[in-house]
Design goal:
Layout: H1 5-25, H2 33-46, H3 54-77, E1 96-97, E2 103-104, H4 115-124, E3 131-138, H5 141-159, E4 168-173, H6 177-186, E5 191-196, H7 199-208, E6 213-216, H8 230-237, E7 247-251, H9 261-267, E8 275-281, E9 296-303, H10 306-325, H11 332-337, H12 346-370, E10 378-382, E11 400-404, H13 411-425, E12 430-432, E13 441-445, E14 455-459, H14 466-479, H15 484-490, H16 492-497
Parallel strand pairs: 4-5, 4-6, 6-7, 7-8, 12-13
Antiparallel strand pairs: 1-2, 3-9, 8-9, 10-11, 11-14, 13-14
Length: about 500
């Protein structure tokens, strides 16, 4: 841990801004005025004696968001090649460039092929020896997943013949609610999809050889954050009773680069899946917490033989066609925004993700030690580091799930208002909001009815400044209240806004 975390982050942001300036102007040309101004502010802040305080941390938060805004202004509207200069359907003869000088071609915006970023993605995560790969970018993580599933459903029976008249079968270990919604839309009599809340049921289906697609979340994006048992899966695969052609799709949006996809390739070499597709939302942990643009990242790997290379190219071509036809590609503006140097950079991804993981682990471990579930307004703390699988390398998560004990339908709104009030009073960079992987910290009240409605997700960002420990103390203070009645008594003005109503039982 750095002794002066805010100073270290300010210096890191200065290095990012310098790389941005070089990307926009070249190593010897004068950088854009907007970045020169930003660098001057940053150099002043890095020497400010208040930087390591809560007030200084907020200045640092504002500085990081301003860097994001200035980068986007430069790549969209800056001279001489901002993306705003080009229409969605530009004249055919017009030469089109990214802000760093990369030339692009497209007759319609949704036909754009982000080849430079795909080269960077392929270099970031190359397949192991004996395997070949293709890398693609989509508009976002969900468009990547749904496009892959639709192309697999249509192309697999043609590319990998199987017993006729059998429905196409997908078995999923995970919990992300939007994948569940996607399967409700995609599945029918000829395409069966099943979610497995517990892995043994998935392994049973794999052992029977009754699966066409295995969809894996290394850490299930659900309230329990259960960790996938790779050893058990590999052992099961090696005992398959029927060699039905099967694809493995991995959604690693919560895991960045820590899940060992390469190990699947090595361990299953004698009976390989027809393909392994590794997918993640590149918005979360790949952009230094600055959210330049939505993007979905896809690596498709197949065993490297002449026959499979032809199939790999066929499959990649089908994905490209689907991406264009479904409108699932990056726009020119998004392509320009994602030309930021930290994106698809191995060091940036590794360092930022590890910082996010470490902060959430610290939050979970500290709070779990302080909560008494039977005598606290807060109940169970869920994070991979607290379970039996904590020693697996991918037992990480960019957020922590807290269960609370509501006393009525208004409890959710009441607790959110208390958190917002306390974060403001304590000057914490802790905001109510969705997503994760930022530099500052966020919380989000559960919004899905049932058990999830009585949960709270806390996403600690990468910064190890005073707000990290302030947020831990805030939730520790809340955990000291024995129930909602005591909490409401402590905040009468907020209670007046959200009075207790009828008790709801959603356990």
């Amino acid at each position: 841990m750095h002794a002066s975390p805010c100073t270290a982050e300010c210096q890191h942001l200065i290095a990012i801004a310098q790389r941005m300036a070089t990307a926009l102007s070249g190593p010897s040309a004068k950088p854009p005025v907007s970045l020169v101004d930003w660098l001057a502010r940053a150099e002043t802040l890095v020497t400010n004696p208040k930087l390591e305080s809560l007030d200084g941390e907020q200045m640092l938060e504002n500085l990081s968001l301003d860097l994001r805004r200035r980068w986007l202004n430069e790549v969209h509207a800056g001279a001489p090649a901002g993306s705003d200069r080009y229409m969605m359907s530009p004249p055919h003869a017009q030469a089109k460039y990214l802000a760093d000088g990369t030339r692009v071609h497209y007759p319609y915006d949704r036909w754009l092929k982000p080849r430079e970023l795909e080269r960077r993605l392929a270099a970031l995560h190359p397949p192991p020896s004996g395997w070949a790969g293709r890398s693609m970018l989509f508009a976002n993580g969900m468009s990547a997943i749904t496009t892959i599933l639709q192309v697999l459903r249509v192309q697999s029976p043609k590319m990998w013949p199987r017993a006729p008249k059998l429905p196409y079968s997908l078995h999923w270990f995970g919990g992300y609610f939007e994948i569940a919604r996607a399967l409700e839309l995609l599945c029918n009599d000829s395409f069966h999809g099943r979610k497995h809340a517990r892995q043994p049921a998935l392994c049973t289906a794999v052992m029977r050889g009754a699966v066409d697609v295995v969809l894996i979340e290394p850490v299930a994006a659900d309230t329990g954050l259960e960790v996938f048992d790779l050893d058990a899966f590999i052992a099961t695969w090696k005992q398959r009773r029927a060699k039905r052609p099967c694809a493995i799709v991995i959604d690693s949006s919560l895991s960045a680069d820590v899940f060992p996809v390469e190990r699947l390739c090595v361990e299953l070499a004698n009976d390989p899946p027809v393909l392994i597709a590794s997918i993640r939302s590149g918005l979360k942990l790949d952009q230094e917490g600055l959210e330049f643009s939505n993007v979905g990242l896809v690596d498709v790997w197949m065993v490297d033989t002449p026959a499979t290379i032809e199939r790999l190219d066929t499959f990649a071509s089908a994905l490209t066609t689907a991406r264009t036809t479904f409108g699932a590609s990056l726009s020119q503006d998004e392509y320009a925004a994602l030309s930021a140097p930290p994106f698809l950079d191995a060091t940036s991804l590794h360092d930022h993700a590890r910082a996010v993981f470490a902060n959430n682990r610290l939050f979970a471990e500290t709070l779990a030690a302080r909560i008494k579930p039977d005598s606290s307004v807060l109940g169970r703390v869920s994070h991979p580091c607290l379970g039996a699988a904590k020693d697996r390398a991918w037992a990480e998560a960019p957020f922590v799930v807290l269960r609370y004990h509501p006393d009525g339908a208004s409890a959710r709104a009441f607790l959110r208002t208390v958190l917002e009030h306390e974060a403001k009073q304590r000057k914490l960079t802790l905001r109510s909001g969705s997503s994760f992987g930022f530099r500052g910290h966020r919380f989000e009240m559960g919004f899905v009815r049932g058990v999830k409605f009585n949960t709270l997700r806390v996403a600690m960002g990468a910064r190890r400044g005073p707000s990290l420990h302030g947020a831990i103390q805030l939730f520790s203070d809340l955990a000291a209240y024995p129930d909602f009645a005591a909490l409401r008594k402590a905040y009468p003005q907020i209670e007046a806004q959200h009075p207790k109503d009828r008790v709801r039982d959603e356990t």
